[in-house]
Amino acid sequence: MCYNAYNSYTSEVAVRSTHSMVISMRLPAASGKRLKRMANRHGWTPSDASARLVEEGLRRSEFGFIDFRDSPAGRQAYLQGSSLAIWEVMLLVDSYRKDVSAVAGHLKWPQAKVQAAVNYAAAFPEEINEAIADNETTDFEALKRMLPLAVEFVPRKTAKNRHAQASSR
Fold this sequence. Notes:
The chain has one domain (6-12, 32-150). The protein is 59% helix and 7% strand. The chain is built from 9 helices and 2 strands. The chain has helices spanning 6-15, 29-42, 46-62, 86-95, 100-107, 111-123, 125-136, 140-146, 159-167, and strands at 66-71, 74-79. A two-stranded antiparallel ribbon has the order 1-2. A hairpin with a 2-residue loop joins β1 and β2. α4 (86-95) packs across α6 and α6 packs across α7. It is globular and about 70 Å long.
């Protein structure tokens, strides 16, 4: 399920705008054009796009294994080399009662990678909590509108369980 966890980040920027700082920079013309294309694609101003990219770059440099990607619901923080957004990893961490090593075993990842998600979530709890809350209010029909090819997975009893039930009769 995709979610725009980046909404809380944009709200933070708007709230803090009274404490903002103007920094001027020169970009090569080709980079400026690419920045404008990105801004247009997302409905941002080039200045907003620049601020977001700088913020993302700072977060990447401050937190190991963190990356930002576009998703059907907007930009989100992800763990590098995975398809999981940070908030999704935190759902697992919560389901394993905060046992980072158990989550690492479940995902077959190094423990440091799961710890990176925990560290990021601790630094940006509003972003992660908002994403989790939004996920809890989203049903399959809303997901299908975002991802038309989505198919609901309904687990069936495995052949082994069916065989065990049949032989116990």
